[in-house]
Write a structure and sequence with these properties.
This protein is of the alpha/beta class. The chain contains nine helices and seven strands; from the N terminus they run H-H-H-E-H-E-H-E-E-H-E-H-H-H-E-E. Helix content is about 45%, strand content about 20%. The chain starts with 9 loop residues before the first helix and ends with a strand.
Length: about 230
Amino acid sequence: MSRADLDKNPRDVAAMFDGVARRYDLTNTVLTGGMDRRWRTLTRAALQVRPGDRVLDLAAGTAVSTVELARSGAWCAAADFSLGMLRAGAHRSVPKVAADALHLPFVDGAFDAVTISFGLRNVADPDQALRELARVTRPGGRLVVCEFSTPTWTPFRVAYHAGLERILPAVAQRVSSNPEAYRYLGESIRAWPDQAALAARIGAAGWTKVAWRNLTGGAVALHRARRP
């Protein structure tokens, strides 16, 4: 079994996600109690995609999030650097491309909207990834980052972090094809910046009108922004 470390070496991270790909969707649904479906729906609504839009879903994994975005009638492409994840989602009928978040294989201004869900914290350089997303978005285009965050109520925050440390690995041991990977994922969530800090980084990467909405008591946050 493979896992990555918090230095986020790209090869290690890709290999780790290759290892969890086979049961990734099932594991996510079990670990979140089915809330992953609601988060995908809210991400689509926040991105305000419309028929005819061109949308990039970065770190799309098995493309289940891309299929949700495509329900809007937009043209949506799934991009990920884990070939194992893309293969696991091969049955989903959306365009897929292997892509490095730090060097996206798209021309400037190619998309009307871009999004990344639960992937930004796994990138070696999140700030560069945010700049790349800005580069491939047309002026006036939209960004939504859906990511684990910091619960706002202290008792819930304490319980949430304890769950990441103890419960998440135990559940993953039963349902994941690579349980060891979920120890890293729990660590990466605890190390991730809070809502305000991430908003500041999004703004520093060239986005404007940055705002966020807490979901599930702040355990997850939707950050949205515009390309100037």
